[in-house]
Amino acid sequence: MTALATPAPSARRLRTRATLLAVLSEHGTLSRAEISRLTGLSRSAVSSAVTDLLDEGLVSETTSPAPATAGRGRRAAAVTLRRAHALVLAFDFGHTHVTAAVADTTGTVLGEATAHLDVDNHPREVLDAAESLARQALDAAGHRLDEITALAAGIPGALDTRTNVVRAPSTLSQWIGMDPAAELGRVFGRPVAVGNDAEMGARGERAYGTGHTVNDLVYVKASTGIGAGLLLDGRIYRGASGISGEIGHIQLPDTGTWCRCGNRGCLESVASIVEVRRRLVHVLAPGARPGETVDLPPLDRLADVPAAARVIGEAGRTIGRVLADLVNCLNPAAIIIGGELGQAGDPLVHGIRESVDRYAQPAVAEAVDIRATRLGLRSELYGAIDAAITVATTRTH
């Protein structure tokens, strides 16, 4: 008796399979309904493709409690890509530090190393330090460089995605015209993804932080500068040339402070961590002489100090005035506040909330949840890990 040959999958079925693998690689765990919405595929096509991928062992499906709005007792099935075991390397470049981390493709950090450097003004030294830090992180993890599959990095400046070169003279003046991905690729000989640090922060929050179930969020990195990473309909939005989210240079009325970009009244010229610390010194150490170094407590310890909370709350209201316009335009489900200033917690968040409620349209203000990150200062690092995993798994599948 002749066995019947198994028919080859149709071209449509193969395209559907590839589409599902790509969307799961980018977004992580998704319900079947979310896969359908993100891909535009019918529920039946998604169900059939998920069944095929389960049979192949490329995905897993588990049930987890649905959100409270779904009703008592209902549970949603969650589909997750079974990533091939591999190691990735991630970098978080700040203005004054570089952190390298080795992680596996589950997102578990196995080793890391940090150095404090003048990143803005010494790019060559910083790239040399990145190689050294990577080797330190690998040593801590007990692995070798030749085991790394892919890497990614977040940089604190605008990156033109059309050319992959740095474009922002006000932040990374010595990096202008450099292609960080090409530079890191030459050093490590691996596929590289590079993005703005706020974009990486949004990725980190979506993959590992408080934004895990949110498809429309704004991540605000409030530090020396103030930038926003935009996740819209489940995808990072970079704009026409990759320079979206520069909210730190939105100008405020009745503010004449000069900004490093050359304009007056930019948000970051009046509400950056530098300005907030200057005002905190004024209220907490009024006897300090101009230019005198004053050691302030960490921001997360100042919430119960009335004078400090007022300063932080005012910064929040100023930032919230700009974010209210963004809320009106984008109607996000969440705004997640990170960066050094984000560590101030409730006084900052409450100030932002106050301005959003005052200046945004009531319906969109009501829809947005404003919260501080629970990843602390590691959102950008985890975003780079997520980006590196995406590169690694896209190559695998």
From TrEMBL:
Residues 16-66 form the HTH marR-type domain. Pfam families: MarR_2, ROK. One of its GO terms (molecular function) is DNA-binding transcription factor activity. Belongs to the ROK (NagC/XylR) family. This is Transcriptional regulator. It comes from Kitasatospora phosalacinea.
